[in-house]
Design a protein that fits this description.
The protein has about 100 residues and is mainly α. The chain has 4 helices and no strands. The chain has one domain: MazG-like (Helix Hairpins). The two termini are about 25 Å apart. The protein binds zinc ion. Zinc ion binds next to loops. The site of zinc ion has 8 residues, from loops.
C-alpha cells in the first residue's frame, strides 16, 4: 500500500473525529501508542507487535494530516537514502538527525 493511499484511508476513517479532538490531544494519543509499542517490543509477541506498529503508524499519520503534512512527502525525504549524506548505507557520524 502506498503511503498516500494509507493516509487517505486513515483520513476517511478517523479524520472527522480526529479533527474534533484537535492536534494536541491527537498527538498525545500517538505518544500513548508509542508507549504501548514499547511494551509490545519487550513482550516479544509478534502479533501484538504488528498491532502496535500499525496503531503507531495510524496515529502518526492522522497527526500528520491534522498538521497539514503529507506523509508521502515526509517519507520521500528518505527516498534516495540518508537525507543528510545521500548515501545508502548512511555514512554520517550520527544518522537521522
Ligand atoms: Zn547519512
Amino acid at each position: 500500500m502506498r503511503i498516500a493511499h494509507f493516509q487517505r484511508i486513515i483520513d476517511e476513517t478517523y479524520g472527522e473525529r480526529d479533527a474534533q479532538r484537535g492536534l494536541e490531544r491527537t498527538f498525545m494519543w500517538l505518544v500513548e501508542e508509542v508507549g504501548e509499542l514499547a511494551r509490545a517490543l519487550r513482550g516479544g509477541d509478534h502479533r501484538r507487535m504488528v498491532e502496535e506498529f500499525s496503531d503507531v503508524l495510524a496515529w502518526l499519520t492522522t497527526t500528520a494530516s491534522l498538521a497539514g503534512v503529507d506523509m508521502e512527502e515526509a517519507a520521500n525525504r528518505f527516498g534516495s537514502g540518508c537525507p543528510k549524506c545521500g548515501e545508502r548505507p548512511c555514512v554520517c557520524d550520527s544518522p537521522r538527525h
